[in-house]
Amino acid sequence: MIADWLADNAVRIGELTAWHALLSVIPTVLGLIVAIPLAWWASRSARIYPLIVGASGLLYTVPSIALFVLLPQVLGTRILDPLNVVVALTLYSIALLVRVVADGLASVPHDTVQAATAMGYRPWQRLVHVELPVAVPAIGGGLRVAVVSNVSIVTMAALLGIPQLGSLFTEGFSLRLTLPIVVGIVLCLVLSVVLDVLVHLGTRALTPWQQRTETA
C-alpha cells in the first residue's frame, strides 16, 4: 500500500519538494543580500548597532501565519501568490542574519582593516575584498540557521493553500491518512539536511585557509 501510494504520487511529491526548496532558498539569498549592507552600517556605529539589530530581531517575533495573511493587502497580491511567502521569509532571514553578519564584520581584526586602509582600499572595496571574506565562517553559520528555519516555516503556507511539502500535512489531516504526513515530515528533514550540508560545503570552499589551519 505504501509503495503504491508513493508510486501514484511520485510526480506530485517531486513538484512539492522542488517548490519547497525554492521557497526556502530564494528568501535566504535575498535576506543575505539585504542583511549585508544593514549589518555593515550597524557594525560601524555603536549607536546604530542596537537600533538595527533590535529592529531586525523584532521582525522574527511576528507570527508567520499572520504575516502570510497581511502581506497580500500590503503588496496587492493574491492570497495564493507564492510571492507572499518569499517576502515573509525574506524578512525572517533578514531578522536572523543582520546580527550574525554585523558580529562577523565586527570580529575582523582591527590590524587587518587598518592594513587594507593603508593599501588604499575604499570602504566598499575593504568590505568586499577583506571584511566579508574574513567574516565568511560567521556568515555561513547564520545562513545554515536561516535556511533550515525557512524549510520549517514554509510548511505554514499550506494553511493558505500554497503548494509545497506542507500540503501533504493538510491533505493527510483532511483525509485522515498518516502516510502523507510522514512522507512530508521525512522530506522536510531530508531537505533541511541537504541544504545545511550545501551551505557548510560552500562555506568551507570559500575559506580554504581554515582547512589548512585545522590540518596544521
Describe the overall structure.
With 216 residues, this protein is an all-alpha fold. It has nine helices and no strands. It has helices at residues 2-43, 48-59, 64-75, 82-106, 110-118, 123-154, 166-175, 178-206, 208-215. The longest helix is centred in the N-terminal third of the chain and has 42 residues, at 2-43.
Number of strands: 0
Number of H/I helices = 9
Query: Based on helices, strands and strand pairing, what is the structural class?
Result: mainly alpha
Q: Which spans of ≥5 residues are poorly predicted at pLDDT below 50?
A: none
Give a quick summary of the entry.
With 216 residues, this protein is mainly α. The chain has helices at residues 2-43, 48-59, 64-75, 82-106, 110-118, 123-154, 166-175, 178-206, 208-215.
Q: Main traits of this protein?
A:
elongated, mainly alpha, 216 residues, 9 helices
Task: Describe the secondary structure blueprint for this structure.
Elements: H1 2-43, H2 48-59, H3 64-75, H4 82-106, H5 110-118, H6 123-154, H7 166-175, H8 178-206, H9 208-215
Helix pairs in contact: 1-2, 1-4, 1-6, 1-8, 2-4, 3-4, 4-6, 5-6, 6-8, 7-8
